[in-house]
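> run fold LRRCT domain-containing protein
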Amino acid sequence: MCLIIIILYKMCHLEISCPYRCHCFTPAQVLCGDGGISYLPRNVSRKVKEFILMSSDLQYLFSHTLAESPQLTKLVFLNNALRSVHSQAFEHLAELRELEVSGNPRLDNLFPGTFEKLGNLTRLMLNYNVFKSTAAGTFDSLKQLETLEMRGNIISDLPPFLFGNLHNLLVLDLSLNNNLTADTFHNVSMLTELHLEGNKISELPDDIFFVLTELKVLNLRGNLLTTFSDKAFGFNASNLKELNLKGNALRELHSLRSLSSISDFILASNQLSRLPEDIFWNMTVLENLDLSENQLRSLPGTIFTGLLGMKTIHLNQNHLSELDAKMFEDQTLVEQLYLSDNKLETLPAGVFDPFIIQITVRLHGNPWRCDCHMWNLHEWVLRNSQDIEMLDRMLCESPGFLRRRPVASIQRDQLVCSLSKGFGGCGQEIHNNTVVIKCKVDKCSQMTVKFSSADFVQSANMPSFTWPASIQSQIINSIQ
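> ok
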């Protein structure tokens, strides 16, 4: 019995033996990754469905190279030394669903007809080669294609209607190339994702995305845009969910009213110095907004009015010196708020009161003024210290005797204010709900201090005075 088991094991092992210099994770998956490989192995089992070759010295795919593996459904050539792919290299692979030929620094073109027999292909990745163009009709036979990636090439020209037959295309990635024309997107109205990152785009013609009525994700990161508006989408309301404009040169945002479905809006690393009060008002489902690394000096107090579902707000690395007390009045569900690296000296009382759930906050990198105006913020910081990231970097900038001290390490009675220019040696502190005014003078002399409230005015001579019981507070004046 043991002998039979051993024989059967050896027969099975021979049938699915792994090609030399390759790894077989399952009978259906083979990975070959060795700099010494210069040709494809011939002894690939007919059970193999997925074949991956990476970091090899393979330079050519000939017409017969893959003829013995018609069963493949996934084929990946990644970071190899390919120079040329024969136009019939894939003609035997009628079952192929996914094909990748990426990371070949000497592969500069594909011949017409290369994908002609791949009618079942749903994913095609041609990233980080050195394609300068793509011949008309290259993709015409790929009627089932759903994802096409051509990022990181040096394409400067694409034929009109290149994607005209790709009626099922959902994801198109043309990032890190040099071309964008209105004709590019004709007949691809089913697109849900479009990636145009790093294409040196300086302007968007009106209606350029008009036909992309199903578009959910648009990535325009790292281009040269100086302005942006919803005119690029035409007059109809857009279904766009995610818009990435990070790393452009945006100075202005115009009307965005048609972008009412956006949930994620990235505007980081631009040159925005001001924003219209109503710029986001129509984005009623907005959840994540990134305005970091701009030049914003102030924000309208009602800029977030009506945005009830916001979860993250990034305002870090701007030039903000103040915030309106009711700026976040409608943002009760915020989970993350970044205000770090601005020019904030204090925050208005109650600015964080609307938040009803645990929130992660960043406040470091601001020139905090640690005086009596910080009482409310200081109390909030101590109460929510576990929710403040890098709390030890939230430092006082003034007054001088507290400079570079972490705000959380300061005692409340150290948060004092000078009373006036005429009494530069005076300051006020608070001890157990008692306000203490301390003055340092060269010599004692008779003074008159006037105390006032809405319905009470009283003058008194120093050195001491006690409020009437009706005011329910005591002022202790000490001359040192």
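The first strand starts at residue 22 and ends at 26.
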